[in-house]
Amino acid sequence: MSSLVRPHRHDLLIAVVGLLGGAVLSLLGLHMQNGRPLDAPWLALLPLAVMSGAELLRRSAPRTALGIGTLALAADQFTPGNLATVLMFTDLMYAAVLYGTPAAARRIPVTTFLITVGVTIGFLAWFREPEALLIGIVTGLVSFGPALTGVSVRNHRDAAETARLRADQTALLAEMDRAQAVTAERARMARELHDIVANHLSAIAIHSTAALSIDDPATSRDALGVIRENSVDGLAEMRRLIGLLRTGAADPEPSSSPSLGSLDVLVEQHRTNAASSGLTCTLDDTRTAPGRLPAPVELAAYRIVQESLTNALKHAAPGPVTVRLGQTGEQLTAEVVSVFGARPGARAPGSGAGLTGMRERVALLGGEFEAGPVPAGDGAKIWRVRARLPLGEGSVKP
Question: Which of 102, 124, 279, 378 has the fewest Cβ atoms surrounding its Cβ within 10 A?
């Protein structure tokens, strides 16, 4: 069983005011016409009451309300008439356009205009007097005028709603952009922190384990020296990054970031750190004319080599660790190769975040990345990390 729709409080107010106002006009003897077939004054109250009832439906069922109002207005023409009845009919015409369907909002103004023109021409032809134009004017004021007003108000309302939706969409897109920017910045910071901290802490973990495991003063002294060096370097790197975060540097790759020019220092540092593990680190730069590359490319290549050397320190079997740099046209290749196999001695734990960070760095530059074991001949395997980074200006993805 469907529930009845309660009339809006404004519709109820209009109906009550219209009914009471029409009753007062009738009591005062103010009528609109004389000489009608039903000339008893109280008969004008019947169309008035019907019109007031139709006002209750002006918002919930505007087409039904207009149909009832039209019949009530027609009946009112056979009585002395009431001004309140006519005024409420104009409101029903206005509401039918404003609250009706889009098709009704298009048809009603056209229909009322044609009715106004038809009534004007018909009464001019019938009476053949200029005063007949007044009938056409009254018809237009009662029907076409309210319909035209409803069209104007509806257009303004629709435009305001469209503007509100557009503003909501703009705000939503702005919030999505902000969230994406925050997520991207957090990911970048996570990569930087991992690459800075993991490198030094891995060396500290391995050498501290060696110092605790081997009861040899010379070994312990060397391990403590490596631990102190990595602690100081790691602290300096953390201070640099914290300083950049506090100052809010706009450049995502500041000039103080490491570059390929300092790669030999990095390799030498890892050679010292890995000496006790049987690893020998070497740098093979085959670029014919090494020069300054785009800052994002240099930082990405440096961090990839740094993380690969850290992984070799934690996981590689004793043997050579080779860092190769090459440049072909508009592409830089960074490769780190180490012996793949079981590593004896102390080992630092790994979480796998390093490989994820390297892939993300390469993806942001639109390059190619691969990491994994590959055959090296005689049944042996090597672990190879290779990144190909484009050097074009448009290679950096937003």
Answer: 378
Give per-residue pLDDT as tens, 5-46: 788 889 999 999 999 999 999 888 888 877 777 778 888 899
The predicted model gives 79-85 an average pLDDT of 91
The amino acid at residue 365 is L
Q: How far apart are CA 343 and CA 283, in angstroms?
A: 22
H or E, element range at 40? none
Ordered by start, the domain boundaries in the chain are 9-171, 260-398
Of 103, 94, 20, nearest in space to 59 by CA? 94
Nearest Cα neighbor of 258 from 297, 288, 226 is 297
Q: Which residue type, as a one-letter code, is found at position 71?
A: L
Q: Which two tokens stand for residue 230?
A: 């990595």
Whether 55 and 18 have beta carbons less than 8 Å apart is answered as: yes
Residue 394's pLDDT band, with cuts at 50, 70 and 90, is very low
Identify whether the C-beta of residue 224 lies closer than 8 Å to the C-beta of residue 209.
Answer: no
The sheet carrying 331-339 orders its strands as 279-285, 319-328, 331-339, 380-390, 368-377
Neighbours of 6 (CB within 10 A): 10
Distances (CA, A) of 112 to 94, 115, 167, 323: 12, 5, 36, 86
Dump pLDDT digits (tens) for 165-202.
999 888 888 888 888 888 877 777 777 776 666 666 76
**How far is residue 296's CA from residue 82's CA, in Å, rounded to a whole number?**
83
- What was the pLDDT predicted at 244? 63
Angle (CA) 322-326-329 rounded to 5° is 170
Exposure letters 267-279 (e unless 16+ CB within 10 A, then b): bebbbbbbebbeb
Residue entry with tokens 């409080």: 9
Structural tokens at position 31: 């009528």
pTM: 0.52
Q: 260-398 sits in which CATH class?
A: alpha beta
CA-to-CA separations, 110 to 121, 140, 230, 262, 326, in angstroms, rounded = 17, 12, 85, 80, 77
Per DSSP, the three-state class of 265 is helix
Maximum Cα interatomic distance, the chain, rounded to a whole number of Å: 129
- Distance, in Å, from the CA atom of 269 to the CA atom of 271, rounded to the nearest integer, reads 5
Facing residues of 339 across strands?
Answer: 382
Q: Both tokens of residue 145?
A: 């005028």
Q: Kindly state the tokens that stand for 187.
A: 């990911």
